[in-house]
Design goal:
There is one protein chain. The protein starts with a helix and ends with a helix. It has helices at residues 2-15, 19-30, 35-42, 48-77, 120-134, 148-151, 163-166, 187-195, 236-251, 304-309, 326-334, 347-350, and strands spanning 138-139, 145-146, 180-181, 200-209, 221-231, 257-262, 267-276, 293-302, 318-325. The protein folds into two domains: 2-102, no CATH class; 120-350, 2-Layer Sandwich (BirA Bifunctional Protein, domain 2). By secondary structure, the protein is an alpha+beta fold. The strands form two sheets. A seven-stranded mixed beta sheet has the order 1-4-5-9-8-7-6, with helices on both faces. Residues 86-92 have low confidence and may be disordered. A hairpin with a 4-residue loop joins strand 6 and strand 7 (267-276). The structure holds phenylalanine. Phenylalanine binds at residues 169, 184, 186, 264, 267, 298-300, 321-323. It is found in: Cytoplasm.
């Protein structure tokens, strides 16, 4: 008798052409007053032996029918023949929900929603801003499309000046309609001096652009951090103290700072700043090419001509300027070995931050 019931039910399930019909079949056999349900309910009136036999068989048939209904239902829901994933309900623990019912298995492990996050350079930029603000520096912004005047001339790099070729600053993108993409953030030194009276303490984080044959340490587009401090007696010693305080705060360890003579037309004297390697602490490792030192930035005392360009009297005011790459700072902090990863859009890289 049970077997007949099963055969009938399976036939009917197979013959359904739409969800509605399937629901009807489901109710006819497995619903509250369904035929199989009736059998299961009547078990209590049977003898113990019969109850066991009939019960086992009926339960097995119930499972089989539920499976057949579930399969059919998935067929209707995904005409392509693919089984739709129920994972957004938190999984189904391998059970098949009866037709027309979505089971929410509250015991299934949750699926963590993907949340957005900040780019590593943004993280570093914010940290840098915090540190300089705590030392009384303002954070300012400037235009990425610049004029030749601000990018070069006002910074003591007139046309024909060898520095235009010697410094990578000269590898500039010029725009057809005039102007250029700034090749450093130094133009903001002038723009800021034009509008603010000393004493001045400010930093400019921002994008810069250079024509480059890209490799693991060169990009056409990267971020710089410009710094400017002007007062009546701001000195090289002040610069060293500020930059050491910044680096130690940023890397959260004690750091030595070394000034090497260097040349930039907009400073005199000019330096290149090295810091003791954050990884080997000066002993020598692959990161610092076994020198114990890492090159960090260009800097110097602002050239009198530059102060004049900015409208300040070099007899009254003096100060320092520095410029470093935020990309480089980020690479050292997170031990990233290829600058091109920053703009690669590679999620395997970005999702690590
Ligand atoms: N603007 C220089 C560069 O991009 C860096 C620099 C800034 C050097 C300020 C000295 C003073 O290479």
């Amino acid at each position: 008798m049970l077997n007949q019931l099963k055969q009938n039910a399976l036939k009917e399930i197979a013959a359904t052409k739409e969800l509605k019909g399937l629901d009807a079949v489901y109710r006819r056999y497995l619903g509250r007053k369904g035929e199989l349900t009736k059998v299961l309910r009547s078990l209590k009136d049977l003898s113990e032996k019969e109850r066991k036999e009939t019960g086992t068989a009926a339960n097995e048939i119930k499972r089989g029918l539920e499976e057949a209904v579930g399969e059919k239902r998935r067929e209707f829901l995904a005409p392509s023949g693919k089984t739709p994933s129920l994972s957004r309900f938190g999984g189904t623990s391998g059970k098949t929900p009866p037709s027309g019912v979505n089971w929410l298995d509250v015991t299934a492990p949750g699926v963590k929603p993907a949340v957005g996050h900040l780019h590593p350079i943004t993280l570093v930029q914010r940290q840098v801003e915090d540190i300089f603000q705590s030392m009384g520096f303002s954070v300012v912004d400037g235009p990425e499309v610049e004029t030749e005047y601000y990018n070069f001339d006002a910074l003591n790099i007139p046309p024909g000046h060898p520095a235009r070729d010697v410094l990578s600053l000269g590898r500039t993108f010029y725009l057809k309609k005039g102007g250029l993409m700034r090749s450093h953030t130094s133009p903001m030194q002038i723009r800021y001096m034009e509008k603010h009276n000393p004493p001045i303490r400010m930093i400019v984080p921002g994008k810069v652009f250079r024509v480059e044959a890209t490799d693991s340490s060169h990009e056409t587009n990267f971020y710089q951090l410009e710094g400017l401090m002007i007062g009546k007696d701001v000195s090289v010693a002040n610069f060293k103290a500020v930059i050491q305080e910044f680096l130690e705060n940023f890397f959260k360890k004690s750091i030595k700072v070394k000034l090497r003579p260097s040349y930039f037309p907009f400073v005199e004297p000019g330096f290149e700043i090295d810091m003791s390697c954050t990884m080997c602490v000066g002993k020598g490792c692959a990161a610092c090419k076994y020198s114990g030192w890492i090159e960090m930035m260009g800097a110097g005392m602002i050239h009198p001509k530059v102060l004049k360009s900015g409208g300040l009297d070099p007899k009254k005011w003096q100060g320092f300027a520095f410029g470093m790459s935020l990309d480089r700072l980020t690479m050292i902090k997170y031990r990233i070995n290829d600058i091109r990863l920053f703009h690669s859009g590679d999620l395997r890289f970005l999702q690590q931050f």
